[in-house]
């Protein structure tokens, strides 16, 4: 207990939420159903990473890029266009206009919460269940949800060498126009989306990654597809290690790297760093809250409840160090808040509340072209755990509707349990992956068998027919039919999943 | 029994299939798993309506149109298309090239069947279970699957008046280039798809329909959206009755019509008739097979088994007079064949075989922009049958991803059973309807409750979030919360379906 100081407000609440991003907002909304004794502490203004610098602006850039690409490809459909002229300033202006609209709507929502529930300032622990906010408030909370988010990782050496050229997605979308050239560092989801989008918008892109293939595909049969499908028009250097960065002539930056035993360098206007995000714990004085960082710089916590040990602290969203995904941050926030306020009682002995949506089905989508999606359990994990499964395959090369759309590239692989015939997971690179991924993720989440799914209606001609092809291929294997059905547009036209 | 005639082959089979379209091919493949004593009789060469003049070429035209439209809209994303021009001949050439590829693949499949299973010629009944094929074969069959398909309806008077200007989808795709102007007659799926596609390809379109709105939307809350969303750039005349057609000056055709009590006329190069399709029974001598046409010109049959009364005849595909939909034709064909060959025994006393995929979940998609989809049971049907249900609504106007894609138009309505909380059906006009429709159709088919569905993962930012919005709205109503949640991009960013 802290003695009262002059000028300090003292609050005693059921729940304090630190951070009003996606996870914190979701936590607030979930908790507000159970208690009005709660407070959200935000230091840097409302508005989520998602809306400000994440999902929304990145999709806006990708959408513009896909329009430019479509114009260049239109001749394949009998539409002639001399060329696509990309007005970089106009692209960025539309992006920011809509981005700001999204941010404003988030801010309006937070500002509509009761003023008594909102504190502005930096929170720091002054005790296991006690926070101080700047110099104006002390909050004693039965439970605390930490939702302070994440920031892009940028090595200090790079920052020191070429700070004026360095971009992350936190700053990329603030550019007044598009650079002429850029080095994109990182082969994960964000690097993949941005490298391709910028290239399609006419930016010269040098793309460096440690990985041997972009896009984060895990299935060894899909990984080889990534490079040819995703590097068109791009200087792609895999297995690259950045050695140094330096200012170069003409106001540019030079990136030196090793790749495959060779040295190389690229001179570019800008360098976009997409090598990951790290949790933000700045100034939280975690130790005073009884929390410690592990050797990865994360706070250990129980995965399902999000609770940190036996403490009163729950983690929600990116700060937990999991994948920075909006839909999981929101679920985390809701879950943490539900756990944190579900039961009255002494803070250190919260009973386990029932978890809403106990099972979590992984769902990852990369919005490149063709899109990448991973659903449920992966090929590697299933193989490692010796789970008996078969892989049903659909090749998009000759898939009817994909061919009509001139998007007949990539493949879908669905993992089916040999014993229970349920879909365990799937991975794909191909057209409409974001949509097929939901059909598959719902099926995995619900524990559906391939037999149930093969009885479900599929229209024609649609890309969803590839799901049926893959499921049918899996069923044929389970029936001991080793022969692989050749991919054919017929599989769309005259086959409804039987007769394999 | 027919006496042997010289030059006539006599065949005695378990199953004769008349017509090798989508339904006939599916019937063949299903039956061939059970018997090798079967024959397919085709009079006019292999290749399905779907591939030749239906799903595939229409989607090819739509794809070209959507590219042309995207180019015109690109400026909204900051992209200027320089010198965009629709090359009608090139559009049609690409369409036919890919169309022929699809047709060829169908033909190759049929030609790979054993020669003994294929008869070429016109079939006609010469007895209840006996067919003659031209003058060269007599087929005595334990069961017969009629899969003779359908043709576009064109009134004789129109044909006589302006035959050279009249088109159906059977002939549209054979045009060497695009006409300058066209009257599209009919507001159903095909009329809607073709009117919009042709307009977007630069053809001046006059669109006449009896209906008060295009696209076949049934939900009274959605119907008013159809006209503003689907008539851009088109002269749309609803509640129109064509009075006459005649040749006009300059090699054109004049269409005279009544609409809303007024007379009107349009002078155009071509007239595309999309007022429906009718079953083809030409020269079948149905009466000798013991079959009769009802007053609608259809053959009555049992809906689930597709069997005609107590006869040995089963109907499959368009000939049954149902909606001409590929995926249903294929299912029909499979079902008819399975029924027809499932059990040995006298032809008139076939026991009922178990029906594969007993329940049929309706799934209709119109590939206009925004797309239209209808799933499961409709609003009208549910209202008429006094089924207790609530309607969960999602408005796309402020749906996050739809706004990013500049496709934020339309609405989704999901019908949820008050008692069992299952999704009964849905209807929508909006972005990505073909994909959302599958998610919903599978949910309806599987009998999922909204509670299960609201626990399923949805990524962000995706159009699928609208499904969650609609389901959440339905759940709020079931919980007695009458207030309707205002549509907001927040529903995408910071809400996972609870907290409504």
UniProtKB/TrEMBL annotation, chains A, B:
Domain FAD/NAD(P)-binding stretches: 14-333
Cofactor: FAD
The keyword Flavoprotein belongs to this UniProt entry's keyword annotation: yes
Entry keyword set: FAD, Flavoprotein, Oxidoreductase
A matching Pfam family: Pyr_redox_2
Enzyme Commission no: 1.8.1.4
Pyridine nucleotide-disulphide oxidoreductase dimerisation domain: residues covered: 364-470
MF-aspect GO terms: dihydrolipoyl dehydrogenase (NADH) activity; flavin adenine dinucleotide binding; NAD(P)H dehydrogenase (quinone) activity
Enzyme class, broadest EC rank: oxidoreductase
PANTHER family in alphabetical order: MERCURIC REDUCTASE, PYRIDINE NUCLEOTIDE-DISULFIDE OXIDOREDUCTASE RCLA-RELATED
Entry protein name: Dihydrolipoyl dehydrogenase
Organism: Aquabacterium soli
């Amino acid at each position: 207990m802290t003695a009262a100081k002059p000028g300090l407000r003292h609050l005693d609440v059921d729940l304090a939420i630190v951070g009003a991003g996606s996870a914190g907002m979701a936590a607030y909304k979930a908790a507000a159903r159970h208690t009005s004794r709660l407070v959200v502490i935000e230091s840097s203004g409302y508005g989520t990473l998602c809306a400000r610098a994440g999902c929304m602006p990145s999709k806006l850039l990708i959408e513009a890029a896909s329009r430019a690409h479509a114009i260049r490809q239109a001749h394949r459909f009998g539409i002639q266009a001399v060329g696509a002229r990309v007005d970089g300033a106009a692209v960025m202006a539309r992006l920011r206009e809509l981005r700001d609209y999204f941010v404003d709507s988030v801010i309006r929502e937070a500002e509509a919460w009761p003023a008594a529930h909102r504190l502005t300032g930096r929170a720091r622990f002054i005790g296991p269940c006690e926070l101080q906010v700047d110099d104006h408030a002390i909050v004693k909370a039965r439970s605390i949800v930490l939702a302070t988010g994440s920031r892009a990782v940028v090595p200090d050496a790079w920052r020191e060498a070429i700070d004026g050229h360095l971009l992350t997605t936190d700053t990329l979308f603030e550019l007044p126009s598009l650079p002429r050239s850029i080095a994109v560092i990182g082969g994960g989801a964000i690097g993949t989306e941005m490298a391709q989008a910028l290239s399609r918008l006419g930016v010269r892109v040098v793309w460096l990654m440690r990985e041997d293939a972009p896009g984060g595909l895990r299935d060894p049969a899909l990984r080889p597809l990534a490079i040819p499908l995703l590097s068109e028009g791009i200087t792609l250097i895999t297995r690259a290690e950045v050695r140094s960065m330096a200012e170069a002539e003409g106001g540019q930056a030079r990136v030196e790297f090793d790749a495959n035993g060779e040295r190389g360098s690229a001179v570019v206007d800008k360098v976009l760093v997409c090598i990951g995000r790290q949790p933000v714990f700045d100034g939280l004085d975690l130790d005073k809250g009884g929390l410690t960082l592990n050797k990865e710089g994360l706070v250990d916590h129980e995965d399902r409840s999000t609770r940190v040990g036996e403490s009163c602290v729950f983690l929600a969203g990116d700060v937990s160090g999991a994948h920075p995904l909006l839909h999981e941050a929101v679920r985390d926030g809701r879950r943490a808040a539900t756990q944190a306020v579900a039961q009255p009682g002494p803070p250190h002995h919260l009973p386990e509340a029932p978890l809403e949506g106990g099972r979590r089905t992984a769902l990852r989508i990369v919005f490149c072209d063709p899109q990448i999606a991973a659903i449920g359990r992966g090929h590697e994990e299933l193989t490692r755990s010796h789970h008996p499964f078969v892989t049903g395959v659909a090749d998009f090369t000759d898939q009817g509707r994909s061919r009509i759309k001139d998007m007949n590239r990539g493949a879908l692989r669905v993992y089916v349990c040999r014993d229970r015939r349920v879909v365990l997971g799937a991975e794909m690179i191909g057209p409409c992956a974001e949509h097929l991924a939901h059909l598959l993720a719902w099926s995995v989440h619900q524990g559906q068998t391939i037999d149930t799914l093969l009885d479900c209606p599929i229209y024609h001609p649609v890309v969803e027919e590839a799901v049926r092809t893959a499921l049918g291929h899996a069923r044929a294997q389970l029936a001991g039919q080793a022969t692989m059905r050749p991919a054919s547009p017929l599989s769309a036209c005259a086959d409804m999943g039987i007769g394999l």
